[in-house]
## 1
Amino acid sequence: MRKFDVSEDEELGELEDKTEALTLRSKRTERARKKQAKKIKKISRDSRHLLSLPYELVLDILALLRPSDVFNLQRVNRAFYQFIVQEEYRISRAITSWRYVCLEKCFRLPVLMEHIDPTIHHMIQNPERQELLVIHKIPYQHIQPPNPAEICTCLSCLLRWSALCLIVDFAHWQRNLDIGEPIPMIPRGKHPAWNQDLIATNAGIVRKALRSPLWHARLFEAHLDSTTRSIGRHAANKGNKRRRFRMSKEDMESGSDLFLETSGPPSFDFPFHRDNYYMLEAYLPNRGWSAENNRWMYVPAEQHDIDIQYIVNWFKRRQQGNTTSENR
């Protein structure tokens, strides 16, 4: 075997690697290449995603939206859907705290029976007591009666249910009121299918609000829109000299109900019929104007607890009365 000496080896120089990757040309590799390119593009796009921002900043941005905008954002993709569902309470509270300061106190939620002490369910749902509530459970044409097995039927909760159902029905007929088209009137004692379907749909929306803070805020948005449109309609009627809330163009466009916190006409009476919608401007129940404090005073959330205690006391008195009668 021939041996290279040092001098000859130096003449050869360093070996150079000129090997190259083979060019692969198959449908399978082409599909893999495109898939990888899409993956890289998606990663690049997601790095500029809204949800890649700090958590507090994302919440601050979403707090500027209307509830309807948040619902639309929820439909963009799975990431937005999961984030909004997870942070629904925080987002709703942030929106409500500046947009619906007044409406939040006027339209509280009725309490679900599942959140009430089970030991007093039989007191609340007592048949004799339910008969006493007939005057508050009149089958209005525009409101579906509440289900006693679903929500509390103390006086506060009954009124809250009716007020929330009214929000949805009043919003439904805004176009008719805007263009001057009469709302269909239903003869007394008649129950047309279209109206039964409508009030059932309205009640279904309210039931969503009972469990979803975002749906509750969505009702506020709808009622603020109905209220501003109603005030605007009546303001355009020069022959109507009734007192109303002062609403500027900026108030109407702000998406906030703060102008309703100023002095204005009270609205104690419940619109018991759709005929009342024609003259209804700002239905804001559960509050009254205090001349002494120069501000609106709202029925507190604790009124529900007071009503529950009243029911418990009523039931105990009834039992004592029955016991006394038996002893006689």
## 2
Amino acid sequence: MVMAMVCQPTKEQPQWGDSVAGHSYKPRNKAMTYANLMNNYLNPNSVYTEEDFRHHFRMRLPVFKRLLRDVQQVNSYFRQKRDQVGRPGFSPHHKVIVALRMMAYGFPADSMDETHRMSESTCLDTLAEFCDTIVQLYKDKYLHELNQEDMDRLIHKAEDCGFLSMIG
């Protein structure tokens, strides 16, 4: 089953996606790329299993879905929009997948065009937006300085794995 790409009309002018002077337009067929992504990983009866998803993206599928929902709620960059000529832009799924792939494997931005049909500049914008949004969303819960309770938990976990005196 192929899910249709849905664009939500917005009244605001997008602050991203302006063309770069001197660059030519490349028809990247975002709708086909979105359909492939959904059929490969996110639709029922996908080509790849949830275990494959975890292996490819270094996270469980439910974590990805929560992350996707959270970033869409906080940052309008991750909502489906249309470009200046009315074509659908990249889907939120697509943007988050590209950011995760770049982080999980250290893929350079220019390599994403072949596999995900996203230009280097869009990949870099997407990664920056994703990182900023993640920090904004989760800094209070996950990105705080360690306290003694955290240190004790980490030391105990390290000792259980055989790493004695891991933390100086």
## 3
Amino acid sequence: MSATRRLYKVLVSHPNVPKAALELLQQRGCETIVCESVPPSRVEILRKLPGVDAILWAHYQSLDGEILDAAGSQLKVVSTMSSGIDYVDMAEFKRRQMPLGHTPGIVRNSVADLAVGLMVSAARHFHAGRQEIEKSLWRTEQINWMMGQEVRGSVVGFLGFGGIGQTIAKRLQGWEAAKMIYHTRTQRENPFGAIHVPFEQLLRESDFLIVACPLTAETREKFSADAFKQMKSNCVFVNVGRGGIVDQPALVDALKCGEIAAAGLDVMTPEPLPADHPLLKLPNCVVIPHLGTQTMQTTTEMGITAAKNILNALEGKPMICPAY
């Protein structure tokens, strides 16, 4: 191991980055400078950045020119520990030709498992049922109480049909859905028989509609009041993409007035969601606090991949997962 390699300094923006990722960096001759505050303090990050050769960015605060300037001209590479990078100023990174890595693909299994859980919990009234128990309103001897819907015989639609969308579809094999449809900019070959359709058809036909795409200028508030009006009244809407893909007040209205049946959300706007937010008062909305990647296995794999992105770039090799 060369002396030069031992001098590489890597800022790690969060103290809970998996130990395996830190050990990999250290074993390969890097000094890790780990920020200690939770949630991450931008003041601390900016204070510790000067002179570092690389940044492992492990949270969702803005990653922009201020951060790159604070690091200095010797900065060689940045890798996020996330799949989505909507919080990154991509134009600034490209302008400076700063290598940027991220960790897509790894998250597909944990997010797909959670998406199926949201489908079932929203369609079968888990949240409303719990509320009935808490109010001592659990009804017995009543055939039509808390009637939900099944995946069997339904049309399952996807906005976005990349790694996460197709892994959800894989999970649903054997659930006897009548059909799977999806909308993306281009048609995707897939082994699930899913059919590429226009967005308006996706809205009209889906009994379950799963958002599994990144937040971009094209997808921002794609689910508007007009979109919800086009959806089936029995539709179960699931979002594991980003909160900004949905016009959230329009979603609240659609759930209140019965334009759609239910929603299951792992992402919303803002995050964290205020405790008095209208979404949390709706019996037909299951809300969880952005837990998609929150498993030990996935988080560890994300940390290791981010570390490998950095090490490869420092060694002049292609990153495992470059962002552009």
